[in-house]
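FORM 7B: Structural annotation worksheet

SECTION A. Query
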Amino acid sequence: MKWITHQLGWQLGTFDSQMGSLLAAVTFIVAFMLGGTLSDYRICEDIPIQIVNAIETIQDSNLYLAARKPEYDPQPLTQGLFDIVKSILLWLEKAEPLEQIEKNLTDLNQLFVTFAINSDAPIVARIQGEQAKIRVLVTRIERIRDTEFMTPAYSLLKILLVSSLLALLLIETPEFTINLMISGLISLSLSYILVLIYDLDNPFEYDGKSSADVDLSPLKKLLEQLQPNPLQGLVLSNTLIGSAIPGNEK
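SECTION B. Predicted structure
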């Protein structure tokens, strides 16, 4: 485009201080928006890990109680945690209803009743705190995912970006080749950063269009860990060890 405008003689002016001020303003606004978006993205990256930590804390308490009191069955609570992780992944990746997550979190209350009968009050308070933490984190994801915070800023940025690109096309300098290279580089850089800001603004999109979605592998790994009964392997190992000890064979 720059070469075409040059050949047609559509150069309306030369590079001056006003053009420099325009490019400086656009660069400042783009850098400001990119910095804010990157800061929010780094915060979002930790949300799945925080959810995993909260669920693992509940599961650790669940297994601790089962080891301390053999009459307590940890499997129902493990299944409840499994359902929560599964519903979160389906909500994020398959756009399943958020209500299922809320239902699964509420169902934990009944499971906590059985847990509380066999456990101490401080441990019960701890796992209830982790339950509340999961609710807060899911609500935060919903707000980030479904709310467009920067729409007015995007409009301003687009206007400034288009103005800058038009100005770069229509100004001339004594050295056309250098002008062409610099104009192309600036245009490409600003356009790429605008696309990057759009991409980073919704890190929980998961629609196949974004390359900067938050990694969900910690949640998927936790789902695999919760699916089998963790105590089955322990019981099986103890059985095998016991049968291997002389005198324990029947």
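SECTION C. Observations
Residues 9 and 112 are 78 Å apart (CA to CA). The chain is about 80% helix and 0% strand.

SECTION D. Sign-off
Analyst initials: ____
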